[in-house]
Fold:
Amino acid sequence: MKTSTIIIFLIIAILKTQAQGYLISFTGAGATTTVDSVKVDNLTSGATVTLNGGDILHLSGTAGIGSVDIDNGALQIYPNPMAEQATLTFVVPENGYAVICIVDLSGKTVYQIGALLSPGIHSFRVSGISRGIYFVNVSGNNYFYSAKLISHNNRKSEAGIEYVSSVKNISGNQLKNTAATIDMPYTDGDQLLFKGISGIYSTVVPDVPTGSKTITFNFTACTDADNNNYATVTIDAQTWMAENLKVGVRIDGIQEQTNNSIIEKYCYNNYITNCNTHGGLYQWDEMMQYVTTPGAHGICPTGWHIPTDAEWSTLITFLGGYSVAGGKMKSTGTIEAGTGLWLSPNIGATNESGFSAVPGGRRDPSGSFYYIGHDCRLWHSSEYGPLDVGAILLENGKINVNAYMMDKERGISVRCVRDF
Structure:
């Protein structure tokens, strides 16, 4: 009776443990399938972690499953967590008999296989392992490897291990495996922002995980005429720049931007560092490159264009309308708290869209600069008259988005949208 009670308690504890930890892996699509690194921001708690692209993120509560160790030496398991199957790859340093054994958390052997192996790197396929956490043990003459394996397999099937391949005559070289599992505190409902980077490409994916999953980064080229590369974000059917444009040569605020075949920009208070953090400020004609066609390419990267009034409306409508979309578009944090670029109170900012709007302020026709930290003003390419054009406004003290007209001589921020 006592033994049965202990076993039942152990099972309950295991199930409780599993329920409080989500495992997130990463993959790439589009321009490249390789993920070099991932930055994860918990926009709710303020926590941040950076991982290698092949690492696994463990979102853990106060009683999570703890760190899942993936052997960084001679035993590699991929993918881990597994769905229906995974591949075990390990080094055999000398001729001899090897035993591969899969053991559950109660110590029961789920499956075991033996094989006579020569020196080299050998691969075996594991399949049919039921959902749970296991230890994979490999033992042979003068070596022993062990690693955790997590299975998300919900199908009822027979467990098995089968030989796949080998690479011989390596003289005991070790496998190089930089995979690791990185812990991050997480409470159900927290808003996360994943930024995947692969060479010149980067894209952000907002998510509120409710279980273990794979995040796919759809990498898209977004490189301006100065070879600045920008993060992108896909919101519904549109793909937007997730950063303000900063292309061009800086000129002082008292000067006018002119049609001289050189892209010119203002930097707030004439400091280039403000362009680096907040993007450049552009007059409408300079942004459009002196055409008036809605949706013109303007100063955008190749394959991108200046958004039209209709494209802004599509985005804002998808995010719930003008009364609430501002909060979903604004980056989080405040200057006062040292957590962001907005002045307090940054009302309603969740950035759940991943748009990551920052308050670049504006340049007035007088050459003066105003409202950095307070306003994010963004042009669109639709004219309302010879002097007035459209823009949207996000403010630190409001959750809404304002659409309004302003004169072409002001300098404000620019976001581009990908050509359909």
Q: What stands out?
A: Residues 75 and 176 are 9 Å apart (CA to CA). Helices lie at 2-19, 272-278, 284-288, 309-318, 325-329. Residues 71-178 form a domain with the Immunoglobulin-like fold (CATH 2.60.40.1930).
